[in-house]
Write a structure and sequence with these properties.
globular, alpha/beta
């Protein structure tokens, strides 16, 4: 039995396929789009429960797509998880300020992405919480080590 409907938006075919495969394996119904314009059309017609959204897209970028979806009465309730190579603090804060529910940077672990999606979708089994926590602690250690060793 299919779970929520997820729209995956990325202009890299291999990323689309990797995410689609893992989400379908977990029981989600998945639709894919490769451009910002196609993402908006697919969201308005398909009414996804959650959108996995890249920032760097041809045409409308992910930030514009996020804003459009959050301002449209038909799509504003869809959760948004940003999945992007842009990992600077300003990018993360901007995405969250525009309405994203979570932000995952590339390269990424499909298991961690799935756990974060489950957390956002309110299906957060203890295992998923533990995976997200372990990943977050690992990232914090890496950043702290960078600060201590490299001075910034």
């Amino acid at each position: 039995m299919a779970r929520e409907h997820i729209l995956v938006v990325d202009d890299e075919e291999d990323i689309l396929e990797l995410v689609r495969y893992n989400l379908e394996k977990a029981g989600y119904r998945v639709t894919c789009a490769a451009t910002g314009g196609d993402a908006v059309k697919a969201a308005r017609s398909g009414m996804p429960d959650l959108v996995v959204l890249d920032l760097m897209l041809p045409g409308r970028d992910g930030l514009e797509v996020c804003t459009l979806l959050k301002n449209d009465p038909k799509t504003r309730d869809a959760a948004i998880v940003m999945l992007t190579a842009r990992g600077e603090e300003a990018d993360i804060v901007r995405g969250l300020e525009l309405g994203a529910d979570d932000y995952v940077t590339k390269p990424f672990s499909p298991r961690i992405l799935l756990a974060r999606i489950q957390a956002v979708a309110g299906e957060c089994p203890e295992r998923a919480v533990r995976l997200v926590f372990q990943h977050t602690v690992s990232l914090m250690r890496q950043r702290l080590l960078r600060v201590v060793v490299l001075g910034g």
